[in-house]
Amino acid sequence: MKNIIIVAYAIVLLVSCNSENKQNIEESTSNYLDAVEQMKSSDVQKITALEVIDVDSYTYLKVDENGKKFWMAIMSRPVEKGKQYYYKESIMMYDFASKQLNRTFDSIMFITDFSDQPFVDNDIAHEDSKKIKTDNPQNKAISIDLPKGGISLADIYKNKDQYDGKSVVVRGVVVKMNEMIMGKNWIHLQDGSNHEGFFDLTITTKEAFEYALGDTITFQGNIALNKDFGAGYKYDIIMEEGHLKK
Length: 246
Known about the structure:
The chain is mainly β. Helix content is 13%, strand content 46%. It contains five helices and 13 strands. The protein has helices spanning 2-16, 32-35, 132-135, 153-158, 160-163; strands spanning 36-39, 45-54, 58-65, 68-75, 84-87, 90-98, 103-111, 114-115, 167-181, 184-195, 198-205, 216-228, 234-245. The two termini are 27 Å apart.
């Protein structure tokens, strides 16, 4: 439930805030704190995309789930009409006003975990860096300046042997968060850079979340290569023991 509360806060933040270090997120005139109905499902849901509408930071989808048609919103990614997709955790919002679309949705479901492949063992962190290419696509609207003394994610992937075992500083937009899997919090960052299709860095930390989806944050941690946590948790590149730099 704590994870859902964090996600609910993230959605409120995403649809109501603009700042220099955040993506251009659309505003809404709804009263979000009153409108949000928290929902959590442990089951993977399968849907078919019927309509696809892309805006700056969201992809809006009209979907069919076992004959039930409804709207959902995900962070921007390619989606094909007529194709099947899978989702897990969601938050329902009512009377959601989208200024970019100039329409109000009676209800819309915001999805935090969305994939074109079935999820495995209920663990969203269960993905190696190769799967990131499809499961967590690059948000091309992201463009982040390097932090002082920091490096880009593309540089890490390009020169991974050079950074193996080294402490580095990165800055990026939070595109995924998962709480307390295998005793760690898991974060995915993107900074807009890309090396041969690799653009998303997974970070593990034992620090509590002090940020939300869509926030731009700076992290320092140790780069590890070919990390195998067991039970299928394998990463070509990962940042461990990360801590937030303020």
